[in-house]
Specification:
homodimer; three-stranded antiparallel beta sheet; DNA-binding
Amino acid sequence: MASDRLARSRGATSIPPALELTDRQRTVLRAVVEDYVLTAVPVGSKGLVDRYRLGVSPATVRSAMAELEALGLLTHPHTSAGRVPSDLGYRLYVESLMREAELDTADRLMIRHQFSQVQLTSNEWLRLAAAVLAGSTRSASVVTPARARQARFGHVQLVALPDGTRLVVLVLSDGNVVQRRLDRILLERTVGAEGTDQAALDVAAGVLNATLAGQSAPLVRRRIAKLPPLAAHVAEVIVGMLEEADSVVVEEVFTDGIVNVLEQPEFAEGSKLRPILEILQRSDFLEQLVPVLARSGGVHVIIGRENANDAMHEVSLVFAPYGAPHQALGLLGVLGPTRMPYPRAIPTVRYLSTLMNELISSHYGELQ
Amino acid sequence: MASDRLARSRGATSIPPALELTDRQRTVLRAVVEDYVLTAVPVGSKGLVDRYRLGVSPATVRSAMAELEALGLLTHPHTSAGRVPSDLGYRLYVESLMREAELDTADRLMIRHQFSQVQLTSNEWLRLAAAVLAGSTRSASVVTPARARQARFGHVQLVALPDGTRLVVLVLSDGNVVQRRLDRILLERTVGAEGTDQAALDVAAGVLNATLAGQSAPLVRRRIAKLPPLAAHVAEVIVGMLEEADSVVVEEVFTDGIVNVLEQPEFAEGSKLRPILEILQRSDFLEQLVPVLARSGGVHVIIGRENANDAMHEVSLVFAPYGAPHQALGLLGVLGPTRMPYPRAIPTVRYLSTLMNELISSHYGELQ
DNA sequence: TTTAGCACTCTCGCATCGAGAGTGCCAACG
DNA sequence: CGTTGGCACTCTCGATGCGAGAGTGCTAAA
């Protein structure tokens, strides 16, 4: 049950199947992870016994720690420091040791209420999602708009503005709206100056709406030849708009809570948070995530070096897709130090993704 | 000529009118500022003479430095360190000592070319502006979309989508497009289920376009009573859309180059860049800037403690408005340490703001 | 199998110290 | 009289050394 909602991004660091721990080892590992996540200080045997009422002596804990270290689940910063979980240790913790801290009902209600206050189609919606994620997990959060993997024609409106410009407003089948201005000179060259008043535009829009519904860029292109001049000209523009929409996988990134990360002691040195800022500003990285998340839904956790990106050795991601299945896909998640409060982050990301799925499908109705 | 394009945000730290420097003092101050901006190391008399061929002995420079310090233009981190410009020193440098480093023609052409590649109405345009600013000045950059201070009705289209939803696509008179979904239940309650097909919507849109052109939210509201049911219902929604547009001063912030700031030695300690991140994420601060920039166009430079915000003692801003005069107003600029390459930043911000003005007015034509 | 004891190791904080950079002042010079 | 060289003085910075403290690993006993 844990494995279906969590997936590793690379097999390299997955847990060896033979890795079975004794009860004591499991208890100690759990305590070490939770203490270290809380305090950011390498944890020693003495303190652990004190704080977690383990009912055994420090010496016993020490030997358990040594075993866990031999298994690669804990590390030693140096001879005489406490233990710190390794990436593999976190992985094991996340997959089978952790007790998830679900959001309580009051939180859920409040979040739901906030979402009901803003328009689904506005960017405010995504900003809100980012703010909720960041606030609830005290990490940096990322949300990208939900987009169809292949843009399809939904509905077009052609608008003649009083200043003479002609506007194409295209509603994609995933509900997104894109617009583009028609070039005056090009327009006049193809159809002559006379035939582009609002009436003529309405006719053309009618033709396009009747013939292009649900078509992707290449299919629209194939129809162009059979259309009357004005409609054909607009259809060419529409092809461009669809192609542009296809070419962008992650068009915009909404982010919040960078300051949360800044406050973590591991990022006190400014240069350490460079990789995080880069992720948040460049969408390349998130784009790599899209296919992974699209394939299997649910929450994905990527811990430290499990990440292919070298710069992100000390960063963990907790991400989930959202959107309408087979229709539109967006990403949301949090990122912070590997020392992340997973028991909080995972349920929060999961809740938000299901909530947004739900809101989308109830608003859009049973959009074919 | 310098004073009309640069304005101080607060009079408190303005240069005393009686402050007249000898030629030597001016040369030394300029050299100190430029050396410190370059190296981030407090500059001593010896090195200054070596690097800037001042033609006098270190002792002479020392006495000039002492005079400048007495005038409040330089400071001493401690007894035995070199001199560092004070905020006032930077101010004087910016206003009368600096030789601006204009962008060369190749740069201008390249920038212009990049802008010609993207749609004016898309966010890509703003992202590009932010990227250019950040790249050219090696600071963090900020760009906000150009918005009318009061939203006015431009043109409306009502769209019946195949899935049954009804969409309001409103083009504001500043060229921005906003959209909202009509609530099905509310809609049926006011006009009955039958009268909302595309034909009926077209009629209503025609009525609205004929009566509401150029109207602001309160004026639209006054007309509602005289409209037929469907048009009246949509008009109410439009009032909401206009009011929402009015209520947001800075709706979105496009930013780039945070990593540039991160690389500056004064921000090596992570916590130092907190104020900068806050500006970039919260729009409150930028909103305060809007009225200042709107009143007098041109490039504004705010240096360190000239800024009312306490957290920004070590940060300088170089900002300019852009947009169509009396129509739409946006902000763009860079921010970095007070030790900023002003001779580069100021011309870049100025060029970009005039370029964007130009592009906007040529695209939008003579939009009354 | 668990526990207590103990020697050992390594970090961290603190104090010390000398080198180096830079200043301010003064007397001499053109 | 402005400029310059000389010189004593101050302060930071990095290296060094040292002791306290925390934590481990091992071993022998319960």
